Every structure is written in structure tokens, then in C-alpha cells.
């Protein structure tokens, strides 16, 4: 017994590297636990990646059903003829677009839309900036500012239907506007503002200006309140007049807000439909015909749905161009 050499622990471990008795192979409790534990980890990481899409799924579904599919259907209709009213549709390619672009009524609607949009946006900017500077002035007390702010914002609180009815009553031949103008001797008799050929477009433009300037006013007022008073004090020290401070301090500081608001207002005003339809309906004749009312009449008065679809696609392209300009400006601003 004394001559027998027993193996050392290191030798025993080398002969049985698994550490199990008798050199048995490792069971599922060793490596098996690691493989089973990795599966929940993979499922957890996959769930984290798909989680945000799950939250966005309802919005994506709504956009798909309410926006993308209708737009796709309208684009498809613009390349066909006899859509909706006939069981068989004929592919005509770009014929509907050629018909729309060569239609004199489309040219008139485009011209009226440009005039209506350009004058409205410019007036919104001027009136909104003027009222915003008035509300931001230190020469008026806080109570007076509160009263003015309530009065100036009032048009924005009214619905389109109420605005249309209100202005129809005001500009009625027997309305308040005619009575006041006759009282001061500016007109000799009642004027049908929405029926006169040369007055209908200015009338609806004034109505749209009154309804839309509060949005500019509130946005520009927020921009004015964000301008540091140190800039005005430095300009005053340099001897700048009120006009000089306005040109060299106020306008450059408000430039990003003005450009953003102008682009948004162009998009909204060029697609204005309810105010026009509920006051003049595009008349008299075609003096207040806009692209929106022109497209609507093609579809639901003349039942030319394919041509109406082509007109709608043209309006969509114009809106997309303006939207791209707006997004690019916002990115450059950021």
C-alpha cells in the first residue's frame, strides 16, 4: 500500500474535465440551461424592436384607410373615363389632364385662386403683425390688452358656417354695411355685394381675411414676445429710430415665423371651399370660381368624375410642392 502512488487532484481533473463523477457526459442541466435562456432574450429584443410599431399601428391603419387609399383611388380614376357612373371604365391615359389644362374655366378658376390667395395671405400678414405689435406694446395696460385680445381673436372662434351666414347678413342689400355706407354718402343705393360681377371676388376676399388674420396675429405675437429687449436697447443706443428698429430688429427676428406662416396660409387659402360655396357658390357667373369649387362642380354637378379626379390630382401636386417647401424651410430653421 505504501508503494502505490495516488493521482493528484490536478491529474484527476485532467482525466475528468467535465467534473462529473465517473467521467459521465454533461446532462441537459449544463448547456441546456444556456440555450433555453437565450430564447427569451431573443424574444424580448424582438418585442422591443416591434413595440413602437405596435403603438403606431392604429394611426398607420387610419392613415392608410382614410388618406392613402382614397388618394390612390383618385389618382387611378384620373387615368380612366366613365368611372363610377358606368360599370365599364376605359383607360384614356393623360386625356383628362389635357382636357382640364385646356379648359378656359380651369384657367379662370386658377386666376381667381391666385388673386384670392395672394391678397388674403398679404392682408393676413399685415393685419396680424399690426395687431400683434399693438398687443405687445408697453403703451397699453394689461386690462386693455385683454379686451383687445378677446376682440381680435373672436373671428377664429367662429365656425365657417357662422362666418358665412354673418357676412351674408352684413353684405345683404338691406344689411348693416349698405346702411352705413349710404349714411355717410359713399354709395347712392343698396349694393348686392355677392351678386355684383366686379364686387363678388373682393367681397369673399375680405371675408376670408377677416376670418383668418387671428392665426397670424397669435403666432406673430408669440414671436414678438421672444425677441430680447437688449436688441432694441442696443439699436436705440446706436441712434436707430422706431422704423429702423422695426426693419433691422423686428422683421429679421420674425422672418422664420413669417415664412412658415405664409407657406401654411398659402396651402390653406388656395384650398378654401366652405366660405366660397356657402356665400357665392363660385358665382356670379365664374367671378369667384376657385379650383376647389371648380373640382366640386365637375364631380357633383356635371358628373365628370374622371375629370374631377384629374383636377384634384393637379391641386394635390400644387399642395405637395408647397408642403415640400415648408418642410425644407423648417429643417433649415432647425
UniProtKB/TrEMBL annotation:
CDD domains: TM_PBP2. InterPro entries: ABC_transporter_permease, MetI-like, MetI-like_sf. Residues 110-326 form the ABC transmembrane type-1 domain. It comes from the Bacteria. Residues 1-42 are annotated as: Disordered. Keywords: Cell membrane, Membrane, Sugar transport, Transmembrane, Transmembrane helix, Transport. PANTHER family: ABC TRANSPORTER PERMEASE PROTEIN, DIACETYLCHITOBIOSE UPTAKE SYSTEM PERMEASE PROTEIN NGCF. This is Carbohydrate ABC transporter membrane protein 1 (CUT1 family). It comes from Terracoccus luteus.
Amino acid at each position: 500500500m505504501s508503494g502505490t502512488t495516488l493521482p493528484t487532484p490536478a491529474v484527476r481533473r485532467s482525466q475528468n474535465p467535465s467534473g462529473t463523477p465517473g467521467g459521465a457526459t454533461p446532462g441537459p442541466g449544463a448547456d441546456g440551461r444556456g440555450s433555453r435562456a437565450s430564447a427569451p432574450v431573443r424574444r424580448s429584443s424582438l418585442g422591443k424592436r416591434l413595440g413602437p410599431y405596435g403603438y403606431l399601428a392604429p394611426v398607420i391603419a387610419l392613415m392608410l384607410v382614410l388618406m392613402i387609399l382614397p388618394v390612390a383611388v383618385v389618382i387611378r380614376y384620373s387615368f380612366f373615363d366613365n368611372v363610377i357612373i358606368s360599370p365599364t371604365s376605359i383607360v384614356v391615359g393623360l386625356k383628362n389632364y389635357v382636357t382640364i389644362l385646356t379648359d378656359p374655366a380651369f384657367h379662370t378658376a386658377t386666376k381667381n385662386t391666385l388673386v384670392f390667395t395672394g391678397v388674403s395671405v398679404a392682408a393676413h400678414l399685415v393685419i396680424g403683425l399690426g395687431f400683434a405689435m399693438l398687443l405687445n406694446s408697453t403703451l397699453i395696460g394689461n386690462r386693455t390688452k385683454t379686451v383687445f385680445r378677446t376682440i381680435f381673436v373672436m373671428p377664429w372662434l367662429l365656425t365657417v358656417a357662422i362666418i358665412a351666414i354673418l357676412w351674408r347678413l352684413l353684405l345683404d342689400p338691406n344689411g348693416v354695411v349698405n346702411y352705413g355706407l349710404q349714411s355717410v354718402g359713399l354709395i347712392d343705393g343698396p349694393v348686392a355685394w355677392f351678386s355684383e360681377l366686379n364686387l363678388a371676388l373682393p367681397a369673399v376676399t375680405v371675408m376670408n381675411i377677416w376670418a383668418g388674420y387671428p392665426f397670424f396675429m397669435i403666432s406673430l405675437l408669440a414671436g414678438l414676445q421672444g425677441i430680447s429687449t437688449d436688441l432694441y436697447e442696443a439699436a436705440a443706443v446706436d441712434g436707430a429710430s422706431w422704423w429702423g428698429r422695426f426693419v433691422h430688429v423686428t422683421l429679421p427676428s420674425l422672418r422664420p415665423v413669417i415664412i412658415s406662416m405664409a407657406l401654411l396660409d398659402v396651402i390653406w387659402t388656395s384650398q378654401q371651399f366652405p366660405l366660397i360655396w356657402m356665400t357665392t357658390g363660385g358665382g356670379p357667373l365664374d367671378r369667384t370660381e376657385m379650383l376647389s369649387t371648380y373640382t366640386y362642380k365637375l364631380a357633383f354637378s356635371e358628373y365628370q368624375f374622371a375629370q374631377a379626379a384629374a383636377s384634384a390630382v393637379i391641386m394635390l401636386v400644387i399642395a405637395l410642392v408647397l408642403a415640400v417647401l415648408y418642410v425644407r424651410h423648417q429643417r433649415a430653421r432647425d
